[in-house]
Model the fold of this input.
Amino acid sequence: LKLFGPTRRVQECVCVHATACGEAAPLLALLGLRMESGVVTFHISDDFSVSGAPNGGYLAHLAVRAARGVVQQPDLLSLSTRYLRKALENEDADFVVSPIAVGRSVSTVSVTLTQGGQPTSTYLMTFGNLGRQSGPSFLGTLLWPPDLPLPEDDSLIDVLQHGQPLNRSPGYAKATLHKHLSLLVRRDCSFARSAMSGRVSPSKELSYEGWCGFVDGRTLDLQTSIWLVDALPPPILTLMEIAWVPTLELTVRCFARPAPGSHRLKLRYTCTACVNGLLESETTVWDASGQLVARAGQLALLKLPAASRL
Done:
């Protein structure tokens, strides 16, 4: 991880070396430095991809980490992303960070991901402090958390670790992202039946509920929750064979930090509309207590296998 650009206290290059999962902001704070604007360089791994393209949630996760180096607030409140072109695996990417408004309670930052001098995706983020947020709370009935058995219940199955590829087209079969993820759903739901058989289902049920997390059992915070809302297979894969579902636009709204020690989140993923190959979907995650953590909406392209287009 390399950080460089002007700071409030010095005009010099600041270089920080960290692992792919490290955080730059705490080290900058320790040094007494704040980056006004600059560039964060990450190496884009090929270990979090679908059809040879780095997952959009993974890229957004990196962009949020880059932006956190210029704000005092600890929590992402909202994220609006536009994916302009396919990012390249196994290549470095520059995340150009530009503060727009930095305040005491809320700050807004823009980030542009570039490779080879070309913009690949853009991000507009607002940060705040969810730990200090107060006021009335209520949820409409559509946002009540799903009533799920406990993760260890035998009525659930991990469809990503034990199921067949939901899409058997050559490109989609190269997905590397899902080996890191765990998705527990009811064995008798249409999504599980399709996942276990590897075949599309005649069911028109374009939604599923379950427990999501990472295979390594890592503790989930708000940062990893942002990744999860765009990392899981869309329910429409149970209805038809699809070559790829590249995201055009992703919007995430965060409401609360997951309860401390959370290893899984409750999830509801729904495809709400598909018109002429434009797919709209919504993902909502709650912690085990039923606290709403985050919601995401996205617009994606539905790309069919070549044989289906003949």
Remarks:
- The chain has a mean pLDDT of 83.
